[in-house]
Amino acid sequence: MSRYKTKIMLMLAISLVTSVSWAKETFDLKKLNMPSEFEQKVKTIPQDKLQILDSSIPTQLLGTMDRFYQAMKTKSTTEIEAYLDAMIEVQQANKFNPETDMASIPLNTKAASFNGWKAERPQNLNPKREPGPIHLSRYMENSRSGVRTFAGAPLAIYPEDLIAGNVDVAIVGAPLDMGSYYRGQRFGPQAMRNEYGAGGVDMNTMVNPSDVLSIVDYGDIAIDNMSTEISVHHVRERVREIAETGAIPFIVGGDHSLEYPDIAGLADVHGKESFGVVHFDAHYDAGKGRTHWITHGQPVYRAVKEGHVKAENFIQVGLRGPWPGAEGFEWMRNNGMRYHTMAEVEKKGWKSVMETALSEAKAGGKKLFISFDVDVLDPAFVPGTGTPVPGGLTMREAIPIIRGLCTENEMVGFEIVELDPLLDPTYRSALNANFIMHACLTGIAMRHEGITEGDYWSELTTEHMQPSAGIKGKKEGKQVVVDPDYIK
Ligand SMILES: [Mn+2]
C-alpha cells in the first residue's frame, strides 16, 4: 500500500471512530428550543444536520436564533435543508484539513544563522570594565545630552551590571509586533527613550524616583520579528534573568503578546500563582481557541491556562468597545476574575471604581504585576496605538491609580505595551506612556522611602499655606529682596 493510501485509510478510520463516538452521545434536539412550526417543518431532515443549529454559525449569519427562525418561516423543508447543508459546509471549511492545510511552515533548521537574531557577542571582545551601570553622557545634569535612554537612566547590559549596581528597576525594551496585525509597536521603546516624562520629580508627592532608586536602561531584548512564538520564549528568559538579580523588570513593548512571557518569566522566579495582575486595557485579551496560540489578544488566557497566575488574582480595568461579548464576561465571572469596565466607571464614577480596584489588588495579599496597554487611555491621549477604542481613561484618572498600586503593593514587574508611534506624528502618545511609567516608578520609590499609602500627597505642592507661610518667610528673612538694578 502506498504511503498516500495508508494516509487516506488512516483518515477514514479516524473519521469513522470520531463519527461513531459522536453519534453515541446522542444530541438532544430539545436543547435547541425550536419553535413548534419550525420543528414540524424539519421532521424529515436528518437529526445530525440539525445539530449545526447548536453552533455559532446561525447567529454569525443572522444575529440571533430568533432572527434565524424568523427567516426560516417563509422557507420550505427543502429550502431549510439546503440552508443547513450550506452552514455545515461553512463549518467544515473553517476546520483544519490535513489534505489541504499546512499547520505550519517548517523553519529552516539548516540555516547557518538559525539563532542569529539572539546569539550573543563573545564578552571577551568587549573592552575590560568593572561591572555596573554605565552613564552615557559626559554631562552631570543635562539628561538630554549623550545617548537617549529610558528615564535618562544609565545603561546596563549584563546581569552582573544589575547586581553590581544594586539595581532596583531595569527598564528593558521588547520591540515585538508580530502578535498584532496592526504593526509598528516595535518602535515603542525608541519612541519612549526619545520622549521625556519618565524621569524626574513627581509633583504630586515630591518624590523623585531617579534619585531614590537605582534605575537602568537594560537595552532591548532580541526579537525574531518573523515569529511571535520564538520571540516570546526568549523574552521569558530575559525577564527571568532580570528578576533573578532582584531587580524589578519594567518591560516596554512591543505588542500585548508580551504579557504572557512577562508573567511566565516572573512566575519562573517568584513561583506560580505567587503574584496578582492588574491588566489595564480596552480589551480583555483572554481570547482562546484561535489558529495562533499566542497573539496580542490571548496572553491572559494563556497565562491563566498554564497556571502562572490565578484568575481570581487577576483584575481587569478599562474594558470597553465590542469585545468581549457576554461569553467573555461569563468566563471571567466563572473563574473568579475581577473586572472594571468603562461602563462601570460611567455608572459609579472613577473614584469609586479606582478605590475598589486598589483594595481588591491589596486584598489578594500577593505581590503584583501591572500590565498597562496604552489603549486603555482614551485615543485623545494615545492616538498612537493599533486598536484604539473611544471612551477611555484620561491621564488624570490613570496616573493616581498606577501610582497607588505601585505604592501599596510589592511590585514584581510592570509592562507598558501597544504604543505604536507610527500612528501618531505628534509627541503625545510616547509622552503619556512615559508619564504612566513614571507614575509606577514614583510608587516604587515612595514605598522605598517608607510611604505605603497610595493616596499620599505632598503638602508642599497641594497647600500654599498663605498668608501664614509668607509672614513666616518674611520674619525669617527668606523673602526676595527687591533690587531695582537687577540685570541692568
Ligand atoms: Mn491588550
UniProtKB/TrEMBL annotation:
Residues 1-23 form the signal peptide. Keywords: Hydrolase, Metal-binding, Signal. The keyword Transmembrane helix does not apply. The keyword Aminoacyl-tRNA synthetase does not apply. It comes from the Bacteria. PANTHER family: ARGINASE/AGMATINASE, GUANIDINO ACID HYDROLASE, MITOCHONDRIAL. Belongs to the arginase family. Agmatinase subfamily. This is Agmatinase family protein. It comes from Pseudoalteromonas distincta.
